[in-house]
Specification:
Layout (H helix, E strand, L loop, with lengths): L11 E5 L3 H17 L5 E5 L3 H8 L14 H8 L5 E5 L11 E6 L7 E4 L21 E3 L3 H10 L4 E3 L5 H9 L5 E5 H7 L7 E2 L14 E6 L3 H8 L4 H17 L7 E7 L4 E9 L6 E9 L3 H14 L9
Parallel strand pairs: 1-2, 1-3, 6-7, 6-8
Antiparallel strand pairs: 3-10, 4-10, 5-8, 5-9, 11-12, 12-13
Helix pairs in contact: 8-9
């Protein structure tokens, strides 16, 4: 089915979550679209998701259905025609989308690395040992099983508690002394203009990022061929290649939100794609990290094969629901 060309008389509606970071990402997308298609008007539409509601209540996403809860109501609005585009942090988007919904575009990746947040006046003395600034038995707040598992593997003495909420809430818990540290995505701090809050930026070798961290993805209805064509013109080819590999890795692993999984791809100078994948046990007692390199054109196959290798090399209990 082919949808008629959108009329300039009706604004095209852009759906987004309502967090400060989500709004920044949506408004950047609207600005790009306005420049590419000046004859059309674009309208921001905030959609409240189950993930946002449970985040406010301090509930762990893995206990109630996983990261897809940040997109459920947005998918419904798109499918029912209440919005024309949806803007997502791609790391929060399921690898298998509902019927009729297409991932149409990926925008240029922001810095994919994680950062360690320490209290004011505390800083690591050795960049090679960023966790050395944490005292024995330090109390770390995080909602990410991926971050917790990697930090527990490096520092089994640390204690963890669930920390959810927006970036400001998480920073405040450390600044007040309620927590000794937390970990955040550098991309979010950069987009919010809060880079000075990062005590240390962790290399992908020190902390393997979440698959698609720092990438914004745009979904539309599969039937909207006019919008699909338009979005292909603003897609970032590098973001598409790395996200394809990372999402294929996730899909092959088929882990639940309780499974610590990391995935990070980058383009090499020779044009090939280098992919790092990680699987761990949530308590940090097992961690497996492997890499693969191949042609960017084979990104999906590269991710799928590395995911299979990681799964074959991991204890079966890691992937239980």
């Amino acid at each position: 089915m082919t949808m008629a060309t959108p009329s300039p008389d009706r604004p095209l509606r852009v759906g987004t979550r309502g967090s400060p970071l989500a709004l920044i990402q949506a408004r950047d997308f609207i600005a790009r679209m306005q420049a590419a298609w000046p004859e059309h008007r674009f309208e921001e539409q905030v959609i409240h998701t189950t993930g946002d509601a449970t985040q406010a209540a301090g509930t762990r996403l893995a206990d109630i259905g996983g990261k897809g809860l940040f997109a459920k109501e947005i998918h419904e609005s798109l499918a029912e025609g209440r919005i024309d585009f949806a803007v997502h942090s791609l790391k929060d988007l399921e690898t298998t989308l509902p019927p009729g919904i297409a991932l149409a575009c990926t925008l240029k990746r922001e810095d994919a690395r994680d950062v360690l947040i320490l209290p004011p006046g505390v800083a690591p003395k050795d960049p090679a040992d960023p966790y050395g600034a944490l005292p024995q038995g330090a109390h770390v707040g995080s909602a990410s099983v991926r971050r917790q598992a990697q930090l527990k593997y490096a520092r089994p003495d640390l204690n963890f508690s669930l920390l959810r909420g927006n970036v400001g809430t998480r920073l405040g818990k450390v600044e007040s002394g309620e927590l000794d540290a937390t970990l955040l995505a550098y991309a979010g701090l950069r987009r919010l203009g809060l880079t000075e809050k990062a005590s240390v930026v962790l290399s992908p070798e020190q902390m393997v990022p979440s698959a698609c961290q720092g990438i914004v993805g745009i979904t539309v209805r599969e039937a909207d061929t006019e919008l699909l064509s338009l979005l292909s013109g603003i897609e970032d080819p590098e973001a598409k290649a790395v996200s394809t590999a990372e999402r294929a890795l996730l899909n092959a692993l088929d882990g639940s939100c309780r499974t610590p999984i990391g995935g990070y791809a980058r383009l090499l100078e020779d044009g090939n794609l280098h992919l790092t994948g990680l699987v761990a046990r949530a308590d940090g007692t097992f961690l497996l990290k492997r890499t693969a390199t191949g042609a960017a054109a084979d990104a999906e196959a590269l991710g799928r094969e590395l995911g299979r290798e990681l799964k074959a090399g991991s204890p079966a209990d890691i992937f239980l629901p």
